[in-house]
Batch of 4 targets.
Target 1
Amino acid sequence: NPTSVTGCDPSENAMSEEQISDPVQLLGNISPRGTWCSLRMVRSVTESFTVRDDVLLPPSISEDHGAMVTVIEGEGMGVAATSDLSLGGLYQAARVAQRWARACGSRGVIDFSTAPKPEVSGEWSHSIDQPWSGVSKSQIIDRVRSACQGLRTDDRIVQRTASVRRVRTETTIVTTDAVRIDQIHDRVIPWLQAVASDGQDVQSRTNGGRSDAQLGGIEVLDRCGFDDLPQTIGSNAIETLLAPICPTGVMDAVIGPEQMVLQVHESIGHALELDRILGDERNYAGTSFVKIEDLGSLRWGPEILNVVIDPTVEGEVCSAGFDDEGLPARKTPLIKDGLLVRGIGGALSAQRLDRKDDAIAVSRACSWNRPPIDRMANLNVEPGDSTLQQLIGAVEKGIWLDVNSSWSIDDHRWKFQFGVEDARLIENGELKGRVKDAGYRSTTIPFWNSLDAVGDAATWKVRGTPNCGKGEPNQMVFVGHAMPACRFRGLEVFGREG
């Protein structure tokens, strides 16, 4: 049964080229005889508007459209991509993919004739309250210009940037088994930054360290406070500039949801990707300290830690009905009650590990000219039961840390050091003065086992990043993270030296 359609922007047509009006029939015309074949077509439209120091930078709009053909013949699999969407162009791509399938033969990591294949047809899109196409470009520019002006709260603000980027992606997958999957994503990425300087020091504050990407239309700007935040960001930049340097020492910390985005992304998400664990990523982005035998047995943290892949969260950037290999998406636990249950891997990686039941719909590609690989999707920490007041109130001497400013983690995803924009001391259960140049360091499993409390739903924020890079050749994708504030005991915190 197809998945339900949850509304999309009716004023924007999905792939409308005449030659691909019936992708199933098209695939039948290009498929090499005696093979299994799939066709994944992707159309992406990106628009960007930026105002820096009250000057409008050249607006940009780009469109990218192409297709990837996958052919399985015997035990081998081959792929080929093309931007020539004519019948002849796709026919030739299918023959190139077939040649690769024959060349690989029995040399593949598995017998691809037994590889999982899409079984369910369906359509998926998300709700849009205010369609992008319903607002003029001049209205968007005026809003961005106003936000940039609002960042100027003091003469010591030396640079102000406000921007809005929108990415619409339409994907159609068809197979020779008569499966057809259509999906549409509209993503909006608001960005605000104020840089302050007094001639001796420079400090920057943003609206979340580029973690404000969400699904939707113009209403995303309202959800993230795009019109109201500039003055707060500008004022916080000045406060941070004038603040003392963060003290160094071992102390308890409450980490806010924006910084938890980066923390989970780097020390849980990438560490659990199955292709890393299998060694496929070692040349580019490293491996992982996690071993195959750790799946189902490693104590990652206390029982209050629950981490999931959840494609159902409204507005989160990687909510979806299917992944790019056609696997239906569903909410799946990764770490349950502190115990590592499974890694982040699609159907192919799960088959390689002989753990087919552990497959998650996370096999994703950044474009039509890249094959899907294991990626994070909506990787979330489930909320707990502690209010923000309770998280802070139980700290006698510690620190609040939020909004990432820098990150460093080793190739095995074990040792890390992160810096934050937003840091305030905590004394006797109360937030006190702001400090600057704050950072913290630890190692992954000891860090997560120092987790002492998880914030409730009121602290839980839906966030997303547009720039997660991985793979050779490189693939840059969106990743969703919904995070609560969390409290950690005995964290090594430090400030700038010199």
Target 2
Amino acid sequence: MTENLRILAVNAHPHDFTHYAGTLGIHASRGDQVTVVSVTTGANTHNERLHDEMMKPAEERDPTVMAQTEEDYVVVKAIELRDACAVFGISDVRILGFPQPYRLGLFPESIEALRDVILDVRPHVMIT
């Protein structure tokens, strides 16, 4: 009997999951335990709705998009990551929540946070 693998995928931003989603999905479908960790919230990356509104003349911009707070967008990014992972059969999704721009020198506590995840998951394989 073959033991299922424990795979830990660590990315800087939630959208980085897409770089290896297919590989992780294959492992999840084989019964391997897959955990996805995002070090940051993704609050300052890939806000396409805001970008699109900013490209419009001021009088045509959607005020609800323009009024969205960073905290609101963090919630959106977390939902997007969890939903994307679910498509590939992955339910263990963790967001460490460090701000952007992320620099290890600014947030040394991120080492301990990631260490705690590694000790919890005890992965056979890590993908970064």
Target 3
Amino acid sequence: TNIPNELNKVTLYPNPANSVINIVVADTNNLPESYSIYNTLGQMVKNQNITNASDLSVDINSLSKGVYIIKVNHKNQSQTLRFIKQ
């Protein structure tokens, strides 16, 4: 059964990460539409539409070491997760 307003439980691994962070969704038939990554100052540092499952592997090589927020957008909802770039 579908639970209304459930955002398909998104998780990240590995965390902390060095070069790639993976967005994990419970239901791969129901992918999020996009994600945005923000630094601790709230500036967007990366933004990507998700068109297929390979887009769930996020290359973070270009990011400086530190703490980031990733906002995963799914229909009219979003889920925010924190990760550390080592």
Target 4
Amino acid sequence: SNHQGDIDWQAVRSSNVRFAYIKATEGADFADRRFAENWAGAKAAGVPRGAYHYFRACRSGAQQAKNF
């Protein structure tokens, strides 16, 4: 997520990491500002990846699924 700052995806790959989950969204209206950068960086380094949504109890599941 944005909280990890810049990620050296080549170094991640070199450390035998097998996959990464990358934060995409949170709640009903937040999109992680580094998602696209991290998504592309992981792919370029050959790190299999998935996206995740951080659920917030203050909004409905339907609203959050739409955000994700």
